[in-house]
Amino acid sequence: MTERRFYETATNAHGLAHDPFKAIVTPRPIGWIGSRAADGRLNLAPYSFFNAVSDRPKLVMFSSSGRKDSVANIEETGVFTCSLASGNLAAAVNASSVAVPHGVDEFAIAGLTPVAGRLVDAPYVAEAFAALECRATQIMRPLDLDGRQTENWVVYGQVVGVHIRDDIVRDGRLDMAIARPLARMGYMDYCEAGDVFEMMRPKAP
């Protein structure tokens, strides 16, 4: 049997060049979060701690390490968008991750076109294959085992509107082989969803 290494996260003495935790929990979808500050300034940032939580109602969440502009803006306005990060926009997604002072427009930095939401006062990426308009339902800081608040901020939002470009619709379904969603791996690694296959859920005898 192949040998395994084990380490306790309390000490994090894994013996590797880099922490492997985020390389194990992969691939992670990227929440490309668009928001607007109360003074009208735009913000766009990718978050790899992101996912759908429920489909009835449609809920999504993202987690921010620290109270960054996205969280601050959503606290002020109560709304945000999530644009689909896809392989063809990988460079723009990366460009929008730059750490800049509050109020600097990442849409402009990444060369992207902001579009105002129909139901929420927040911008989404016009070039994206799809986008979700969301109203925040909960903003919280999770606790650790000792009951202390962590430095992470988790934002939950209910999807109230969905934008889909027609060029990824095939036979009444979104063709993810065309959209090729971008996902975060460990370290500075990313991947695209390209080899799409279908498996039907088995039925119990």
Please describe what this structure looks like:
It is a single chain. This protein has helices at residues 21-24, 69-77, 90-95, 106-109, 176-179; strands at 28-29, 31-36, 42-47, 50-55, 58-65, 79-84, 114-116, 123-125, 130-140, 152-164, 169-170, 173-174, 182-184, 190-192. By secondary structure, the chain is mainly beta. The chain has one domain (22-192): Electron Transport, Fmn-binding Protein, Chain A (Pnp Oxidase, Chain A), CATH 2.30.110. A hairpin with a 5-residue loop joins strand 13 (182-184) and strand 14 (190-192). It is globular and about 55 Å long. The mean pLDDT is 95.
Question: Which descriptors apply to this entry?
Answer:
13% helix; mainly beta; 36% strand; three-stranded antiparallel β-sheet; seven-stranded antiparallel β-sheet; Pnp Oxidase, Chain A; 205 residues; 5 helices
Q: Strand portion, in percent?
A: 35-45%
Radius of gyration over alpha carbons?
A: 18 Å
| Main sheet overview | 7 strands, antiparallel
CATH class: Mainly Beta
DSSP strand tally: 14
Overall morphology: globular
Tally of separate domains:
1
CATH fold descriptor: Pnp Oxidase, Chain A
Name given to the CATH homologous superfamily: Electron Transport, Fmn-binding Protein, Chain A
What is the tally of helical segments? 5
Quote the average pLDDT.
95
The first-to-last residue Cα distance is 34 Å
Question: How would you summarize this macromolecular structure in one to three sentences?
Answer:
This protein is mostly beta strands. It has one domain (22-192): Electron Transport, Fmn-binding Protein, Chain A (Pnp Oxidase, Chain A, Roll). It is 13% helix and 36% strand.
